[in-house]
Structure formats: C-alpha cells, structure tokens
Amino acid sequence: MPVKIDNPAKALATSILVHAIKERKNPAKRQEVNDFFADDWFEDVCDLAMVNPDVVRQKLGVVAKRRRTLLAPDAATPSPAGKSGIS
C-alpha cells in the first residue's frame, strides 16, 4: 500500500537532513557534511523541513559560517539617531 505524502518538499528536506546526519558518522565524509551543516543551504533545507537550524547545529556541535550580506559593511551599521549620513 503506497504511503501518502502530504508535503513532498518537507519530506524531501527531512530525508536530506536524516541522510546528512547518518553520513556524518563516516570519517571520509565528515568534513563535507560538516560544511553542509555550516552553510546557508542547510538553513534553506531546515526551513523546508520546518526545523530550527540553530538547534540542529547546537546538538551536532557545528558552527555556522558567517552569512553573506548584500549590504556594504558601512550600510549594515545603523547611524546615530537624527543623523542620516547624508550631507
């Protein structure tokens, strides 16, 4: 009897996460899997699987890479109140 999948994207994302966790036990693939867990793509997969990526990383002892931003470093810092930075 076939199993009905209500949310195929969630099922696929969950399968990816489970597979990565299992692959982490393989010493030959451990670094590659840890890189996946530290990457932004991991967060996208977690969003689809509806799990918190920070909780998964914490349980696995993986540190996230610093996220890339589209803003220049100066633009990411708010200016003091009342000063727009425009002369």
Name the overall outline. globular
Give the oligomeric state of the chains in this entry, treating copies of one chain as homo and distinct chains as hetero. Answer: single chain
**Number of helical runs?**
5
Rg over CA atoms: 19 Å
Task: Estimate the helix proportion, in percent.
Answer: 40-55%
Briefly note the structural class of the backbone.
mainly alpha
Number of E strands: 0
Which stretches of 5+ consecutive residues score pLDDT under 50? none
> Strand fraction band?
under 5%
Question: Between the first and last Cα atoms, what is the distance in angstroms?
Answer: 71 Å
Q: How is this structure best summarized?
A:
The chain is mainly α and 87 residues long.
Features:
5 helices; mainly alpha; 87 residues
